[in-house]
Amino acid sequence: MADNSETNAPRFSVEVYQNEYLPEGGREVNAIVTVTSAGGGTSGGAHLVGTSASAASPPGRRTDAAVVVMVDCSGSMDYPPTKMRNARDATAAAVDTLRDGTAFAVVSGTHMAAEVYPGGGRLAAADATTRARAKEALRGLSAGGGTAIGTWLRLADRLLGGADVPIRHGILLTDGRNEHERPEDLRAVLDACAGRFTCDARGVGTDWEVGEVTGIASALLGTADIVADPSGLAADFTRMMENAMGKEVAAVALRLWTPVGAEVVFVKQVAPAVEDLTGRRREAGVRFGDYPTGSWGDESRDYHVCVRVPEAGVGREMLAARASLIIPDPAGGAPRPLAQGLVRAVWTDDLAASTAISPQVAHYTGQAELAQVIRQGLDARKFGDLDNATAKLGRAVQLAAASGNEDTAKLLAKVVDVVDAATGTVRLKARVAEADEMTLETRSTRTVRVKK
């Protein structure tokens, strides 16, 4: 089911992949729900490359987006001095990528947050004049002070909250640890901002904390990555802004209905990256629960849904869950439906049918395990538990090879010497560059789609 009432909006579709057959008494149903949005007239912003933002905006097109760029200006950004210059250049590149009419602001972050442009607690509308003024203001950025990321996010939230647009997005850059703020304070800010705007987070260099940066992106449904060499910031900021400019629909939720006696065990996004959404469920009525998915452009994502159903005898069948894409009504009215798919359960005494595993479910179960064992292996290595680190990272190599996750396999090869990928036989490298280890940890949740 799709709602195409808005001619310029993407059309959503839902496909469900599962083995619906259960043995007598079987209760656990697993399915991969593939959600695709297409036809919104975007390509993730790729059409902006090599053109001015004004040329990239079709005449008469209404821009329903607001973006705040948060730049770390703490004292460590001056070591080396080129880091601050690279950050200024990257922010200027992001400003140049803004589509005409997009509301935007730039914030500098230290142990407090300050408005760089336009100031006055407001946003500017992107055009040739405001872009030039913003880039001029960036020249005044200098390094000094501490790091309290929660203050940056609070200011971004206030600025974005004043924009009457559906797409609200942040881009955050840091080069250090959040040392001037308690972890619980940052957590409270993230909880307050969740659902209000999305945010991509980047760590530059190697002196920042992976868990902090990935935690920000996870809480705010954005992406996280490392830019080990500051000279790569401009290209990365451009890609992030291009992606933000490609978003067309905000606040989309995956709504699950389950029948009496059934319960949702977990809901995880499994492509393009692993993200557990189970704890983010919001009750939406009797037997309905909503899971946030953030903003969408032209793209496809996969979700692993596991439902526990009541026991039943051979020959019985039931609807285990209905998965719908919806846009909730902030006023509490009926949501806007976008598409839906059905998850079924059929009980059989055919052993071959009931024990077969859906290729999609098997693939993404492996991808989720891959992300988990990478984190466990790196943690064990940090604590000197070399045997456990070898075993976990060996299993990661095995899973990456089996699933065709070549990018992750290449990152693992910088941390371990691979003796036999098929069996997961590896040796820990005696010396590993800090940037390589941090890159593997930061990108551990990235997945590949199931092979056709």
What would your notes on this structure say?
- This protein is an alpha+beta fold.
- It has three domains: 11-38 and 251-349, Immunoglobulin-like (Sandwich); 65-248, 3-Layer(aba) Sandwich (Rossmann fold); 359-443, Up-down Bundle (Four Helix Bundle (Hemerythrin (Met), subunit A)).
- It is 31% helix and 30% strand.
- It is built from twelve helices and 20 strands.
- The protein has helices spanning 53-56, 82-97, 128-138, 149-161, 183-193, 210-219, 233-245, 351-355, 359-382, 386-403, 406-412, 434-442; strands at residues 11-18, 21-22, 28-38, 65-72, 103-109, 113-117, 124-125, 167-174, 198-204, 224-227, 249-257, 263-271, 275-276, 282-283, 288-296, 299-308, 317-327, 336-347, 416-420, 425-428.
- The strands form four sheets. Strands 4, 5, 6, 7, 8, 9 and 10 form a seven-stranded mixed sheet that branches. It has a six-stranded mixed sheet with strand order 2-18-17-11-15-14.
- α2 (82-97) packs parallel to α7, α4 (149-161) runs parallel beside α5 and α10 packs antiparallel against α11 (406-412).
- The longest helix is centred in the last third of the chain and has 24 residues, at 359-382.
- It is globular and about 75 Å long.
- It starts with 10 loop residues before the first strand and ends in a 10-residue tail after the last helix.
- The relative contact order is 0.15.
- Mean pLDDT is 92; it is low at 1-7 and 42-62.
